[in-house]
Design a protein that fits this description.
Helix content: 25-40%
CATH architecture of the largest domain: Alpha-Beta Barrel
Strand content: 15-25%
Bound molecules: ligand LLP
Structural class: alpha/beta
Oligomer: single chain
Largest sheet: 9 strands, mixed
Distance between the termini: 58 Å
Mean pLDDT: 95
CATH superfamily of the largest domain: Alanine racemase
CATH class of the largest domain: Alpha Beta
Radius of gyration: 24 Å
Number of domains: 2
CATH topology of the largest domain: TIM Barrel
């Protein structure tokens, strides 16, 4: 393996370092089994990227099944261990919105987890996979009557109610069926997580949840959250299980989770006292961050679990209440790093641009610097996150190693849109050429799930690799699929 070296480009963001070895893999971004083989090609679960391309084509989502299972188990085992003496363990609901298909539901169940869904469609996948309804939760800020009926038909373990309107609706439907819906109330504890605005969800000024802030216009300054507790506990169609919050996504520091837990426990204790009720369950949501680039530093599940357990233990002791059964809902932290997207390189071009003012290493006026555009055979239709959230990703040359010098590159897709960027800034070997394969790690969560057919591109398939063999768990779309819904006139 040849070690390349070069100085940083003034066009590169400050966080991006020139890798000492372009062929090396920064392990936290990759699934456990991803390595280069003797010929320099990337392999996962013992299968190399040439074989994957040959059998399934590109673009392709490539998932390491054993890695998924081990991340799922790590959450279950570490939270169970940390909370054993507090509430006998933790129920871990895999957040299916991050990536969902029948095979994944089966893995989730086999590893002892449960499933969090957010729509009737996600419930349909759960039903097809045969997971018992008792192990499934339903979310959503605007559930339809049909979705509520479906949840009751499937005898879901919990429906997470998002608003007072919805509480009335769920209660009425259950009552008319002569049933009781098992309900948790989603609250916004006002903890502002340090993440992109559109993926932070527990502050006041957004659509989710019941506010815990006292409404000064309401009688006696009662919060929406308290109104909901009072209404739910009195409603004959509702069995109030407890409270829920989710503070946001791609969060590294455990403090926000701990603070939210403390706020919810204080509220739970106050409500139990005031309304003479018991709320046996408390869900603290998901949102644990992963590494998309070498500067991201995710915490191991055990560290997060320990921090959260300490707060739950001390807060319950201080309040003199029995700890409710705790549950969590990780999505990204289980599936995100299990998967990379495999693309084939097509066209390339190099442009010369001025450095932004004050950029490191800039030689000043009238000096321009090269940026190489590397076009791949997918783009914003298989990974919308860079466009939606300015998300940073990384990439490596996957089909071979190279001793060429690093070149600041931008990996772009094939859509008719200049914002169609897959990896905004990455150093790739200067000899990357058409026909090479690139791998972008960390695409397991919210990539396939958010994929589209923009420009009539067919959505890629998802392959699960395990013990030297690869199988499709979601097939890629065909042109026929694309034309199927076009009525022809
Ligand atoms: N629980 C609830 C109620 C949620 O709303 C979410 C994510 C999760 C759990 C799982 O969060 P995770 O552990 O995966 O961070 N599309 C955005 C993320 C949206 C998250 C939506 N809710 C992205 O690509 O970053």
């Amino acid at each position: 393996m040849t070690v390349s070296s070069s100085t940083a480009s003034p066009l590169a963001p400050d966080w991006l370092q020139v890798p000492a070895d372009l062929n090396a893999l920064h392990q936290p971004m990759w699934a456990g089994s991803v390595v280069r083989n003797g010929a320099g090609a990337l392999t996962v679960g013992g299968v190399d990227v040439h074989a994957l391309k040959e059998q399934f084509g590109t673009p392709l989502f490539v998932m390491d099944e054993a890695d998924f299972r081990s991340r799922a188990r790590a959450f279950k085992d570490s939270f169970d261990a940390a909370f054993a003496d507090i509430c006998g363990g933790v129920d871990v609901y895999y957040a299916g919105k991050s990536f969902l298909c029948t095979a994944v539901v089966k893995w989730v169940e086999e590893e002892g987890l449960r499933l969090d869904t957010a729509s009737g469609g996600e419930l349909a996948v759960a039903a097809r996979a045969g997971i018992p309804g008792e192990r499934v939760a339903l979310h959503g800020n605007n559930k339809s009557d049909a979705e509520i009926h479906r949840a009751l038909d499937m005898k879901l373990g919990r429906i997470v109610v998002d608003s007072l309107d919805e509480l009335v609706r769920v209660g009425a439907i259950a009552q008319a069926r002569g049933e009781q819906a098992k309900v948790m109330l989603r609250l916004t504890p006002g903890v502002h997580a340090h993440t992109h605005e559109f993926i932070a969800t527990a502050h006041e000024d957004q659509k989710f949840g019941l506010s815990m802030a006292a409404d000064t216009t309401a009688e006696a300054g009662v919060s929406a959250a308290e109104e909901a507790v009072a209404a739910a506990s009195a409603h004959p169609g509702i069995e109030l299980l407890g409270l829920h919050c989710h503070i946001g996504s791609q969060i590294f520091e455990p403090d926000g989770f701990a603070l939210a837990a403390e706020k919810l426990l204080r509220f739970l204790a106050a409500m139990q006292g005031k309304y003479s009720i018991t709320m046996p369950e408390l869900d603290l949501g998901g949102g644990y961050g992963i590494a998309y680039t070498p500067v991201d530093t995710p915490r191991p599940a055990a560290e997060i679990a320990t921090a959260m357990a300490a707060v739950v233990r001390s807060t319950c002791a201080e309040l003199g209440i029995d700890a409710p059964r705790i549950s969590i809902e990780p999505g990204r932290a289980i599936v995100g790093s299990t998967t990379f997207t495999l693309y084939e390189v097509g066209t390339l071009k190099t442009v010369r641009v001025d450095a932004p003012s004050g950029a490191r290493g800039d030689a000043g006026n009238n000096v321009t610097y090269p940026r190489r555009y590397v076009s791949v055979d997918g783009g914003m239709s298989d990974n919308a996150r860079p466009v939606l959230y300015d998300a940073d990703y990384s990439a490596v040359l996957a089909s071979r190693t190279s001793g060429a010098a690093p070149q600041l590159s931008r990996v772009v897709g094939k859509h008719c849109e200049s914002g169609d960027i897959v990896v905004r800034d990455v150093y790739l070997p200067g000899d990357v050429a058409a026909g090479d394969l690139l791998a972008v790690p960390g695409t397991g969560a919210y990539c396939w799930a958010l994929s589209s057919n923009y420009n009539y591109l067919a959505r890629p398939g998802v392959v699960a690799v395990r013990d030297g063999s690869a199988r499709l768990i979601v097939r890629g779309e065909t042109e026929e699929d694309l034309l199927n819904r076009d009525m022809g006139a």
